[in-house]
Amino acid sequence: MPKMAASLTMAGFERFRFRKPTFSVCLHFKRHISSKIWRDGSTLPDFEVDLGRTTLKFSSGKLARFADGAAVAQLGDTSVLVTAVSQKQSTSQSFLPLTVDYRQKAAAAGRIPTNHLRRELGPTEKEILTSRVIDRSVRPLFPDGYSHSTQVMCNLLAVDGLNDPDVISINAASAALSVSDIPWNGPVAAVRVGIIGEDVVINPTRRELQKSSLNIILTGTTQRKVVMLEGEADRVPLHKVEQALSQGIKATQTIVAKITELREALGKPKRVYEPPKPAPAYVIEAVESFALNHIRDILYNDEHDKISRDQALKAAGEKVIANVKEAYPDEEESIIFACYQGFVKKVFRSLILDESRRCDGRGLSDLRDISCSVDLYKPLHGSALFQRGQTQVLCTVTFDSLDAAAKSDPVSVITGALKEKNFLLHYEFPPFATNETGRGGIGRRELGHGALAERGLKAVLPSESDFTTRLTSEVLESNGGQCHVYLYLSVPFLILVFFS
What we know:
The chain is an alpha+beta fold and 500 residues long. It is built from twelve helices and 19 strands.
């Protein structure tokens, strides 16, 4: 009904009001309550952090008050609103169903979207990568066993073109979760660290970043503990990186203290939740008794490969569940299976730490067998197949004119993306690589891993190029860590780079 009223002209509203007097009273009541809350909220204090060259401001209780937690962080004239909402009922999932969405509206930059609809559509690559940075910064501090569906939404309110919103969004998310009633063991704080000349710079501007040989986002929590690192460097000496990280973690402590102060002043009491009940001791003992010999025989058998080992562990698990279920018919299979999975991890870990041995027979310093082949398909500009153990990656390279460069939308350019990018690395991890079925297409994970590899290779490419280079990296088999390789691709390299 309020949406209908909002679309009426004033004259139409008057006629509607006389026909529906009860609606007019209801509307007047809502306006009165809303204005009262706003007047109270406007008196809430801001919390400022002096970062030396700039000031980071936090506020809460003025916007999005129906959310479990909401906060605005501002650096310069760049402001981000973050809301946090978590369902009261837990899910049946064994992990935290957390979703982080960062959106940058064109209005925040004083622009109109350039697509034919002139409105924001799906998330851009810049938005997805920023969402992943925020996710990795806050996810580790949720308590174990918390399985309530949780959503953190980041809305760019304004951007000044100088201060990138990535770091601001992490700090705003930390503040929103801290003042909420959602169980969370924060706060965390984030800074961007650069090196210009010989000087370490905290939160450099976009113009300063162009001169920086280091660009790292560092998220830390209390007691100088690091939660998340992401960045790139142009062959910076290790001791300079250590110096930059030391100053970065020191800067986060000031922000952590201020968010703690914000929580104590405006935060809600944390809700009480029921973590999953631990399995009874007698079930754990029964699982370990039935499973020990089976698991050790499987993990000590060097002849197994990934597929046969997984199949053997699955078959052993079915036998263990059947035996324990027969002994304790009232126990749920899901609890027995969870105990079995935990015991497999325990034996596997003991094999490595106590005996310095891996399940395929290798020692801790032994590499898997590596093989490479190049120039696989003549029509391609370049191709290579990299095999390490049972992990296999096919790479191709294509060259084109500068007209084929990737062009970012205007808002992404203002928030830190390159206007045009003539080196592209696209990473794919199809489900068949692990003998599974699933949806095709590129997900957030693939975008993130591709961006990671792209940053690692960018520094060793020629600084100037008259063409666009697109590298594809498709995982065909996966057993353990993913690999990216850039070999024999007709490009002059300064250094050979591997990722594993």
